[in-house]
Amino acid sequence: xxxxxxxxxxxxxxxxxxxxxxxxxxxxxxxxxxxxxxxxxxxxxxxxxxxxxxxxxxxxxxxxxxxxxxxxxxxxxxxxxxxxxxxxxxxxxxxxxxxxxxxxxxxxxxxxxxxxxxxxxxxxxxxxxxxxxxxxxxxxxxxxxxxxxxxxxxxxxxxxxxxxxxxxxxxxxxxxxxxxxxxxxxxxxxxxxxxxxxxxxxxxxxxxxxxxxxxxxxxxxxxxxxxxxxxxxxxxxxxxxxxxxxxxxxxxxxxxxxxxxxxxxxxxxxxxxxxxxxxxxxxxxxxxxxxxxxxxxxxxxxxxxxxxxxxxxxxxxxxxxxxxxxxxxxxxxxxxxxxxxxxxxxxxxxxxxxxxxxxxxxx
Length: 363
Ligand SMILES: Nc1ncnc2c1ncn2[C@@H]1O[C@H](COP(=O)(O)OP(=O)(O)OP(=O)(O)O)[C@@H](O)[C@H]1O
Hints:
There is one protein chain. The chain is of the alpha+beta class. The chain has two domains: 4-230, 3-Layer(aba) Sandwich (Rossmann fold), CATH 3.40.50; 244-362, CATH 2.40.50.140. The protein contains nine helices and 22 strands. It has helices at residues 48-56, 98-108, 113-127, 142-154, 173-190, 201-207, 225-230, 235-240, 357-362, and strands at 4-11, 25-32, 37-41, 63-68, 71-72, 83-86, 161-165, 194-198, 210-215, 218-223, 247-250, 252-254, 257-260, 263-265, 279-283, 288-291, 295-304, 309-315, 318-324, 334-339, 345-348, 351-352. It has a six-stranded mixed sheet, sandwiched between helices. It has a five-stranded antiparallel sheet with strand order 16-20-17-18-19, with no helix packed on it. The protein has a four-stranded antiparallel sheet with strand order 2-1-4-5, with helices on one face. Helix 5 links the parallel strand 7 (161-165) and strand 8 (194-198). Helix 2 packs parallel to helix 4 (142-154) and helix 3 (113-127) crosses helix 4 (142-154). The longest helix is centred in the middle third of the chain and has 18 residues, at 173-190. The model has no long low-confidence stretch (mean pLDDT 93). The site of adenosine-5'-triphosphate has 11 residues, from helix 1. Belongs to the ABC transporter superfamily.
């Protein structure tokens, strides 16, 4: 396994790119640590496949370098990069048995028979497909085929990285959670560097120790699932992660204080000096509650989602969502919303622009 470094990477599909908008990947600098479980998360078109293809060698970047353990591989073709890939659709040989499918990547490399047998049986046991080893792959269900595809990606222990590109696309929804947790478990056992590409936050957050969130060809935040939830570095991360996503409300700054719809809102800590641009307040629905005072709002929608209620209220033309326990208000009712101060942050032009009070007092 290897540490993978992306250095000043940029890629444009155009022959003569001019502005940043001509780049499918804007400046990307990233270190993927040896043995880490990473997710690359972002909406369709944000540049995930472009980045994956650059790492695997299918695409040579317009600018920058890719290093495996410090060695420049930017110009190396895929077959010399020693990478395993699992795609959206199962890549297996229907006419072969499950055993032979799993053994294939090892046979190809001239691995000895005893090692092949040991490794195939280990992987089959991890994937819970031992009872299928002698069956022909043609007869398997789509999810079992994809399991075997994953097994083929994991069977070699000498690859630099295993990359999964939306691997659960073909899996039935009710089986997805099973394979999702299986993959996490596999990472813990195999300890390979793994990159899991998806647009699905649940998949990313379940699988990864660190999630790389991309938007419009840019990495907007790298963090643990908890970090992304608790302190989104960008409003996009706030929106994209969470259900419902973070409330992002238009705001004004005056003398270091933030105002929404003319009313001061208590913040996690000071606003960064010199903050300008489009100012917004971000607070997750989990940290919005009802009180006797606070922001006056009209309830527009109440959804009972089992363990709690989600309400959408309107204040000053903005929608504010809250996750509430206990008794839900009625649609049309006027309520007062309170934001938990230590979870209320300022964003300027999308980027976080306030600092937690504790960090400041520790400084
Ligand atoms: N071969 C290509 N030629 C020209 N433009 C491309 C090519 N491949 C991708 N693009 C453009 O580059 C940008 C990033 O695309 P990319 O496929 O990397 O995103 P993605 O996040 O993987 O999306 P998806 O999940 O839909 O595959 C998009 O604007 C896309 O239209």
